[in-house]
TrEMBL record:
This is Alpha 1,4-glycosyltransferase domain-containing protein. It holds the Pfam family Gly_transf_sug. It comes from Boothiomyces macroporosus. The keyword Cell division does not apply. Keywords: Membrane, Transmembrane, Transmembrane helix.
């Protein structure tokens, strides 16, 4: 029996497609990529590489309109049936230091995400440590917009640009975001549950200072994140941390629905330089899953004392940071 050429061609296309889906579903096995409804946006996760070239050219008003359009198409029942995708998003600028390498290694080795996406409008490709990280941790570079506008507001500080890009990224794609000075000490599995739509850590809960946007885990089109993002229409670029830290806590206090705010498990405290220098206390660290280290003051202190922190010198640093670093680099007893 002979088949027409067109039929044979169709059979071949279908076979190749099925093989592709078989192997690639494994890559996103925990991301729920193929859980779809009627709309193409009814997915637990969307690969950011699919539209990075388009997104990189958009300004603030265009991005805000796109987010509203995409999230309006999401079926709430589909979102409720999703878990937070086991993928990680990072943002980067022109520098990549030793502490950034430690951060990425801890994410890769301990969380074991299906993918690690690095978003940026520029990448430090000449940086040897960054090139090493790309190869070792199979980082996927995603061209993003700069984040220099949000709605109709011009943004000038690099930190604020990163704040905006990370929010847009989590809302549109879903997953976990970590600043590049976050050190992961335990996996995030307890948070990746259907009932958790958005997870964030307090920044100094005792003083009720804020919620820290350096560690966030979110389903696509999280209702809290959309509400928070819309409030950027009133952003004052001269204010350092109101919209990124203080505002989300105010919103949470108004309506904590769809948010899991945690304290010690996702540890964040800007005034933590003494914590770096203390000797290791196993009782304190036993419940900590990740720490936003706010590494900059410690780096400044070490530079002031003309001390270099690298793969060799960290072997002999006798404080909390030295313990974290050796655990991340070489393994050993659980922290």
């Amino acid at each position: 029996m002979r088949f027409p050429r067109l039929t044979i061609f169709r059979i071949l296309i279908i076979s190749v497609t099925l093989l592709y889906l078989t192997f690639n579903t494994k890559t996103f096995r925990n991301a729920g990529l193929f859980l779809t409804g009627k709309s193409k946006y009814n997915k637990c996760f969307i690969d950011p590489r699919t539209d990075s070239k388009i997104i990189s050219t958009k300004d603030g008003p265009e991005m805000a309109a796109l987010i509203e359009k995409e999230c309006a198409l999401v079926d709430p029942s589909v979102r409720d049936d999703c878990v937070i995708p086991n993928v990680v998003h990072l943002t980067i600028g022109r520098k990549f230091r030793f502490e950034n390498y430690l951060s990425v290694k801890s994410i890769h080795d301990i969380i074991k995400p299906d993918m690690i996406f690095v978003h940026g409008d520029v990448f430090p490709m000449e940086n040897e440590l960054f090139a090493r990280a790309i190869k070792e941790f199979k980082l996927e570079l995603v061209l993003s917009r700069k984040g220099d506008t949000v709605y109709n507001i011009t943004v000038t500080k690099g930190e604020h640009m990163s704040d905006i890009v990370r929010m847009e990224t989590l809302i549109r794609y879903g997953g976990m975001y970590f600043d590049l000075d976050v050190f992961v000490l335990k996996d995030m599995k307890p948070f990746l549950k259907k009932e958790n739509e958005f997870v964030i850590g307090y920044q100094n809960k005792e003083s009720h200072f804020g919620l820290n946007n350096g560690l966030m885990l979110s389903k696509r089109c999280s209702r809290f994140m959309i509400w928070w993002y819309r409030n950027y229409q009133t952003m004052n670029p001269k204010d350092w941390d109101y919209h990124s830290v203080k505002l989300p806590l105010k919103l949470y206090d108004m309506n904590p629905a769809n948010v899991l705010a945690v304290d010690k498990e996702l540890l964040s405290d800007w005034h933590n330089l003494p914590m770096f220098q203390k000797k290791y206390d196993p009782e304190f660290w036993k419940d900590v899953r990740a720490i936003h280290s706010f590494y900059r003051p410690y780096r400044t202190l070490m530079e002031k004392n003309k001390k270099v922190v690298d793969f060799e010198t960290v072997k002999d640093i006798d404080n909390n940071f030295g313990r974290w670093a050796r655990f991340i680099l070489y393994g050993g007893p659980p922290l």
